[in-house]
Amino acid sequence: MAAQKYKSASRKRKINNVVVHVALSILAVIWLFPIFWVIMTSFRAEKGSYVSSFLPDAFTLDNYIKLFTDTTILNFPKMFTNTLIIAIFSCILSTFYVLAVSYCLSRLKFKLRKPYMNMAMILGLFPGFMSMIAVYFILKALGLTEGALIRVALILCYSGGAGLGFQIAKGFFDTVPRAIDEAALIDGCTRWQIFTKITLPLSKPIIIYTILTSFMSPWLDFIFAKVICRANSDQYTIAIGLWRMLEKEYIDSWYTSFAAGAVLISIPIAILFLCLQRFYVDGMSGAVKG
């Protein structure tokens, strides 16, 4: 009797495993299909957005070459450089703001602390682009909407309100034992020394997460970049450039280059993730051991 029950349970377990693996395989195909399609399109020799077959009739690298050589209409290298500069500086500032605000709300006790957190939670329910018109006129009054200062304006837009996204980092800092801070204070450390030399080295996972999200937001944003850049084509970001490639006057000649550009913009994010993944895993293992 016990053997029959064991065989029945084993059979059910195998069936469940097969069903789960089949479902996950189907989901993986669904998720990977668009990526595979974009990559195949980026190597397609035929022009235009309408084709008769999924796989290209002929493969070519001309679509990638065109992005960096044909700058008469859409200057992709310039857009790539603009976006990279904006994303790097926004990432640095946003990461510092988020971690600093999160640490203060986690460790320091001050008046209006809870009202501030409640207000931040409420403001987080509204999408950021609701304020873009007001933000634009403020930046215009400061003279930051013309020329090279547009980069500064976008950096301020992406990093200025980053501190409101403190919830996840604060939750992580709450898990760091307060006894460490108290021992450091007894030894004569300041709050800044505790934050930079003790808390941050123990918080690698949340630092990596914050860096990744802070970099991806300006790298992929379209709305704020479009509103602030307007007709200043020399200050366009990649998102605006890719959008213009799909306009009716450009789509026939730039569609396959659009796919090539979509592949290229994923490379910096992939490199950043691969470089930081080791620190993320090390930090998680250290947290588990502690």
Automatic annotation (TrEMBL):
Q: Which UniProt keywords apply?
A: Cell membrane, Membrane, Sugar transport, Transmembrane, Transmembrane helix, Transport
Instruction: Give the matching SUPFAM superfamilies.
Output: MetI-like
Q: How does it sit in the membrane?
A: Multi-pass membrane protein
Q: Which GO terms describe its molecular function?
A: ABC-type maltose transporter activity
List residues of the ABC transmembrane type-1 domain.
Answer: 80-276
- From the Swiss-Prot or TrEMBL record, state where the protein is found: Cell membrane
Q: Quote the PANTHER family the UniProt record gives.
A: MALTOSE TRANSPORT SYSTEM PERMEASE-RELATED, MALTOSE_MALTODEXTRIN TRANSPORT SYSTEM PERMEASE PROTEIN MALG
| Name of this protein | Sugar ABC transporter permease
